[in-house]
Amino acid sequence: MFNGILLVDKPSGWTSFDVVAKIRGIVSKDQGHRLKVGHSGTLDPFATGLLIIFLGSYTKRAPEFTKLDKTYDVTLRLGEHSTTGDPEGEKSVVSKIVPTKSEVEAVLKKFIGQQMQRPPIYSAIKINGQRSYNLARQGKAVELEPREITIFDNTLLSYNYPIVRFTSHVSSGTYIRSLVEDIGEELGVGAYTSGLTRTKVGEYDIKDAISVLECSSFEISKRLEQISEIKN
Q1: CA distances from 169 to 29, 131, 139, 160 (A)
Q2: Structural domain range at position 139
Q3: Is 86 noted as a catalytic residue in this protein?
Q4: Of 44, 73, 86, 182, catalytic
Q5: Shared domain check, 153 and 132
Q6: CATH code of the domain containing 32
Q7: Does residue 231 form part of some domain?
Q8: pLDDT digits over 150-180, tens only?
Q9: pTM (2 decimals)?
């Protein structure tokens, strides 16, 4: 009965595992036994948006989705630095200089293209078997190697200093927190990601997703998709 993929809109404050656990609890109770449930493409707890959930035999297909492009609605705050690159870290003032709208737009465009990006130390990347964010929280030195990514487009939505909103279409493996910090550095004023919503994974769109808070056995079974090929 529960075999396919489910598009879920993750709320802020939930981890991706929280969403998986919630869905697993609902469907396992209905089936009378523990059902396999997984996801592809972790979202940070503070972030919201599209999370693709796999149920039953479809959990084996999760790797097919890892290389899909992603699109985000990004909100950044200029003039400050966060130790984690997001609202959860310790903040410090970098600069009170106010960039012009044209300067912001120019920097957004500058980062479009193929490039090397260093992931944030507060990430789930493993170093000798340990998550980078765990090492960072322990105060240990963390050095992550840059990796090749592609930013296909950055489009400014609004600018009301110190808040910038833009959409970003990126390749798999791109860290928006790193992109935002790079934008702040390029502008010479610092920046951190204050809000983040994933709106698309490949051609899968958040408009077709269900809120995890609205999930029920009936809604899940009604919305499950069975696919033969992933949408690129």
Answers
A1: 38, 26, 33, 22
A2: 70-201
A3: no
A4: 44
A5: yes
A6: 3.30.2350.10
A7: no
A8: 999 999 999 999 999 999 999 998 999 999 9
A9: 0.89
